[in-house]
Amino acid sequence: MRLRLARGLFALSAFLVCASALAQQSLTVDQLLSFIRSSIKLKQPDRQVAAYIAKLKLSEQLDARTVEELQGEGAGPKTVAALNELASASESLPKPQPKAAKPALPPIPPPPPEEQQEVISEMREYAMNYSKKLPNFICTQVTRQYYDRTGTESWSTAATVMENLTYFDQQEHYKVMMVNNTYVNLEHDSVGGATSAGDFGSLLHVTLARKADAVIEFDHWATLRGKRCYVFSYRISSGNSDYNIRYEKDLRIIVGYHGLIYVDKETRQVLRVTFEAEEIPLSFPIQEARETLDYDYVDISGQPFLLPLKAVVRMRHDRYLTKNEIEFRLYRKFSADAEIKFDAVTPDPLPEDKEQPSK
C-alpha cells in the first residue's frame, strides 16, 4: 500500500510541475489535447486539472466539438467547464493549422516490358506442366457452406463437409465422408449446395493455355504470405473459355471470366488465382460466380510441392447468396492401402491471408 501511495504522489508531483510549465506559455490546441489526455490517463483530480486550465492561454482557436470529444474520452465535469471557458476566450484566435499529411510513398514502378513478357511466358509454361509434375496423393477437403437469403452477406451456416480427395493420374476423385461431423457415404454431387472442382491444376491450365487467348497485363505489386508477388490481370472471352457454371443438374453454361494471378517474384510460381464470371446470360439462374484459390508449399514424402491451400467460392441467384470456404488438409502420398482417418471434430478454419501492398 505504501509503495502504491508513493508512486501516486510521484505521478501527481510530476503532473503539477508539467502543468505549471504549461501555464507559463501559449499553447497550441494539439499541446492542450496532449495535456488533457495525459491527465485522463493518469487519473488526475478533476478539480486540480480544471484549476490549471484556467491559467492557460492558447495561440489557436479551441472549438466546442473538440471539447465534446475530450468529454467523451473521460474529462471530468470541472475540466469540461474550464475548457468551454477557454474555447470562448479563444474565439478570435486563428483556427489550428491542419496537420501535414505524411508524404505518400511513391508506387513501385512496374517491371520492364521485357520482364513482364518473360514472367507471362514462364506462367504459361508452368501451368501447362503443373499437373504433370504433381505426385499421386490423397488429402482431406473441408468445405464450410454458408448462405444468405437477404443479399447483405449476413451469413448462416448450411453445412460442413469433409471429403476424401484422391489425385491419381492427373484426375481428381472425391468421396464424401462426413457432413456436420456425422459419417456418411455420399458422392461429391450428392451433398447439395454449391460445389466446385478442378482446383488441382485444371483451372490454372485452361486459364493460361494458348487456346484460351487470355489478355494478360501487369496490374500491380503485392505481398502475399510474406512473398513479393507480380500481380497480373487477365480476361478470357466465352468463345475461348472452358469455365462452366452448372445450376442443379440440368442447366450448364460456359462463360467468359477475368481475374488476377499472383506470381512469386523469386520462384515465378503461382500463389493465388482469382476468377470472376462474365457474359452470363440474363436468363440463367446464377447471376454471379467468383472464386479465389490459394496455393502453398506442402510436404509429401519429404518433397515440397506447391498445392492448393484453400479456396473461397461465391455465387448469387437473385438475392440468395452462397459461399463455400474450402480447405485442403493432411496431404499424403497415394498408395493402394493409403487412407485418411477423420477425427470426429472438424478442424479449425485456416487464417485469412490478405494481400498486403508491397513497399
Topology:
Elements: H1 2-23, E1 26-27, H2 29-41, H3 46-53, E2 57-58, H4 64-73, H5 77-89, H6 113-133, E3 137-148, E4 156-168, E5 171-179, E6 182-186, H7 202-208, E7 215-224, E8 227-236, E9 244-247, E10 251-254, E11 256-264, E12 270-278, E13 288-300, E14 303-317, E15 320-333, E16 356-357
Parallel strand pairs: 1-2
Antiparallel strand pairs: 3-4, 3-15, 4-5, 5-6, 7-8, 7-16, 8-11, 9-10, 11-12, 12-13, 13-14, 14-15
Task: Note down, in words, how this protein is organized.
The protein is of the alpha+beta class. The chain has two domains: 2-89, no CATH class; 113-357, outer membrane lipoprotein receptor (LolB), chain A. The protein contains seven helices and 16 strands. It has helices at residues 2-23, 29-41, 46-53, 64-73, 77-89, 113-133, 202-208; strands at residues 26-27, 57-58, 137-148, 156-168, 171-179, 182-186, 215-224, 227-236, 244-247, 251-254, 256-264, 270-278, 288-300, 303-317, 320-333, 356-357. Strands 6-5-4-3-15-14-13-12-11-8-7-16 form a twelve-stranded antiparallel β-sheet, with helices on one face. Strands 1-2 form a two-stranded parallel sheet. Helix 3 (46-53) runs parallel beside helix 5 (77-89). The longest helix is centred in the N-terminal third of the chain and has 22 residues, at 2-23. The two termini are 51 Å apart.
